[in-house]
Amino acid sequence: MKLEVLYSDGCPSHERLMPILRELAATHDAELVQSRIETAERAEEARFLGSPSVRVDGRDVEPAAQTRTDYGLKCRLYRRPAGQSGLLPREWIQHALRETTAR
């Protein structure tokens, strides 16, 4: 199973997320891959919704991501009960890992 973080330079949330991803990758025996997105063209091609984006086996962990098309080089914000955050909920990642393992 592949746990991938897509990011662009200058995004502070990418580095803050990495310890969480390392822990979850080890717990779920997943390969952790970091993919830097450097151009607007690559952002479109990769369907990059902003930095950081997390995917499990190519599928974004945000439940609503499949319907979004706002690709580009930008910092990504996630809606959380306490407001917006540059860090996605750990629970989304855990759910995606468990769901992929169950397949």
Question: Can you walk me through this structure?
Answer:
- This protein is α+β, with helices and mostly antiparallel strands and 103 residues long.
- It is built from 3 helices and 6 strands, in the order E-H-E-H-E-E-E-E-H.
- Helix content is 34%, strand content 23%.
- It is globular and about 35 Å long.
- The protein starts with a strand and ends with a helix.
- The mean pLDDT is 95.
In short:
Helices cover 34% and strands 23% of the residues. It has helices at 12-27, 40-45, 90-102; strands at residues 2-7, 31-36, 53-56, 59-60, 78-80, 83-85. The strands form two sheets. The protein has a four-stranded mixed beta sheet with strand order 2-1-3-4, with helices on one face. Strands 5-6 form a two-stranded antiparallel ribbon.
- Mean of residue pLDDT? 95
Might you state the CATH topology name?
A: Glutaredoxin
Amount of beta strand:
15-25%
Task: Identify low-pLDDT runs.
Answer: none
Largest sheet: 4 strands, mixed
Widest sheet, order of strands: 2-1-3-4
CATH secondary-structure class: Alpha Beta
> Got a strand count?
6
* Percentage of residues in helical conformation: 25-40%
Number of distinct helices? 3
SSE run = EHEHEEEEH
Radius of gyration, rounded?
A: 13 Å
**Structural class estimated from helices and strands:** alpha+beta
Query: What is the architecture at the second tier of CATH?
Result: 3-Layer(aba) Sandwich
**Termini distance?**
11 Å
